[in-house]
Amino acid sequence: MGSKLSQHFLTDQGALQDIVAASGIRPGDAVLEIGPGRGALTGSLLAAGARVTAVEMDDAFAAALPRLIKEAERLVVVNEDFLLFDLAALGPGPWIVVGNLPYAVGTPILQKLLRWDAWTTAALMFQKEVALRAVSGTGGADYGLLSLSVGLRADAEVVLELPPEAFRPRPKVDSAVVLLRRLPQPRVPAEDERAFWRLAKAAFAQRRKMAAGVIAQALGRPRTEVEAAFASAGVPADARPEKIGLSAWAALAKALR
């Protein structure tokens, strides 16, 4: 990811070291870096002993990167848009993923990564607002579909917050690094996942309303039937969507599949 997406390059050396430390990289680890740009983070990853595959869509950055890096023998540069890149081409891993993601495409990159099963840990920089939505627990204003997407397949926490001064050019917003640890199995069984998303998307589309009524309407099912499912899942009939935790959404999906 490069200048075409208005990338803000991280120049704070302490922050670069913090990201490498948070990702838990050891010498010899296979690391996928998304959007290396001018290679500031790439250099820190290689200095930690990683073998780095860097996916960069900007032709000029991709061509220059091997010349900018000291330990270039452990660096492979893939000149491609990450969102179009076939992750299967990387092989089975396990991979550690890092990236200072362009704000414009941070969420779709995260969604693509969550559907890939060859990584163990990811340390990803987002606009702070997006980072808070990704890690939000039940009940908060930030809790929604992105929180569920992440919670379905990973444990996540914000490990670093950075002001605009840490970047060149300076963004207009704060940034934050989210550390994700992929779960061995998703928290919702595969056979229930379609129903899980149908219910959650319907409810969060009208998040100020009681979820049971919205879901009954979306499914074309009697309100009494939906409220019975809520009772069996231990969810109050008058709950709004942000008050329903991931495990409760999973129970509702199973009950209403």
Summarize the structure.
This protein is α/β, with parallel strands linked by helices and 257 residues long.
Task: Outline the fold blueprint.
Blueprint: E1 9-10, H1 13-23, E2 30-34, H2 40-47, E3 51-55, H3 59-68, E4 75-78, E5 95-100, H4 106-114, E6 119-127, H5 128-135, H6 145-153, E7 154-162, E8 167-168, E9 175-182, H7 190-204, H8 211-219, H9 223-232, H10 246-256
Parallel strand pairs: 2-3, 2-5, 3-4, 5-6
Antiparallel strand pairs: 1-8, 6-9, 7-9
| Residue-averaged pLDDT | 95
Reported by name, the CATH topology of the largest domain is Rossmann fold
Alpha-beta content class: alpha/beta
Strand order of the largest sheet: 4-3-2-5-6-9-7
What would you say the CATH architecture of the largest domain is?
3-Layer(aba) Sandwich
Instruction: Report the end-to-end length measured between terminal Cα atoms.
Output: 39 Å
Tally of strands: 9
Query: What best-fitting shape do the alpha-carbon axes yield?
Result: elongated
- Helix tally? 10
Q: What is the helical fraction, as a range of percent?
A: 25-40%
In CATH's first tier, which class of the largest domain applies? Alpha Beta
Uncertain residue ranges: none
CATH superfamily of the largest domain: Vaccinia Virus protein VP39
Characteristic terms for this protein:
alpha/beta; two-stranded antiparallel ribbon; seven-stranded mixed sheet; 19% strand; Rossmann fold; 39% helix; 2 domains; Helicase, Ruva Protein, domain 3; 257 residues
